[in-house]
């Protein structure tokens, strides 16, 4: 059986697709699994043994080869206009499409609801109306599209081990010096309203004792530098050691660092999903998005996950994705976080 799986973006979402690849290969070992994604995200599945071919959407040669291929099944895990265009080129091939549950998400988005109702109240209402949950976890929904391919009953049970994520890390191509025990603090994110602001970061780390390694891309260099500078000026804790790798590591090397940490602290970002895939202890700080959107990354059995939310805001969640800035200009979903509890949780691992 030859199967094409489609997911164009982004890092975290693609990591959340990896149980699908593994499920197919485990239950149909003779199958051939191809994956279609954007070129800039191809590296997210580097080394994945459950994929036989990865196509880059922007690569003309790849598209030509893709559209000449024949498939027995197409699994669309993106369900957008671009994926529909691809499916039209394979007219007649059986297709399974992910339900993004956008209607349920819209019901709990604060910008579409009465400002008299906070998030917890809206969520409780949705749970009462829709079988006790808001939005089912995305990994479960992804696996639901393929779980009957082994010719067993389509009602076969999905176990926790089936939900585990995969990310394959190579040894770094550059020397990376790390302390024996440290927390990895992930800065940045695709949307500003998912990112921990400088004020919150300072509240969390200023009173910590131990080693903190900062991870992030070129866009986070300025924030990391400001954090370092303000910590040094405060000079309130000489036993806090900050190691700044923002803008200095690629995704693979950042993941390698995360895997060495005692705990990863992150917003709703791709690195949080990678950390879950690597079996890291994880502290997730949720800003404008909420775990109840079904995007919580399953952690492995040996790891712990801690989630921090501000529940008493009528404007939260303001979007299922995010914005360049807080629509209400107060950013309370991050500014009102319980920094002391976050710090106490980090200290358990340091």
Could you describe the 3D structure shown?
The mean pLDDT is 91. The chain has 2 domains: 2-100 and 140-154, Glycogen Phosphorylase B (Rossmann fold); 183-347, 3-Layer(aba) Sandwich (Rossmann fold), CATH 3.40.50.2000. It has helices spanning 11-15, 18-27, 60-68, 81-88, 102-108, 119-129, 138-144, 198-205, 221-234, 251-260, 270-277, 332-335, 339-347; strands spanning 2-6, 32-37, 53-56, 73-76, 95-97, 183-186, 210-215, 240-244, 263-266, 282-285, 305-308. The radius of gyration is 21 Å and the shape is globular. It has 350 residues and is α/β, with parallel strands linked by helices. The chain has 13 helices and 11 strands. A 6-stranded parallel beta sheet has the order 8-7-6-9-10-11, sandwiched between helices. Strands 3-2-1-4-5 form a 5-stranded parallel beta sheet, with helices on both faces.
Question: How do the strands and helices of this protein lay out in sequence?
Answer:
Elements (H helix, E strand, L loop, with lengths): L1 E5 L4 H5 L2 H10 L4 E6 L15 E4 L3 H9 L4 E4 L4 H8 L6 E3 L4 H7 L10 H11 L8 H7 L38 E4 L11 H8 L4 E6 L5 H14 L5 E5 L6 H10 L2 E4 L3 H8 L4 E4 L19 E4 L23 H4 L3 H9 L3
Parallel strand pairs: 1-2, 1-4, 2-3, 4-5, 6-7, 6-9, 7-8, 9-10, 10-11
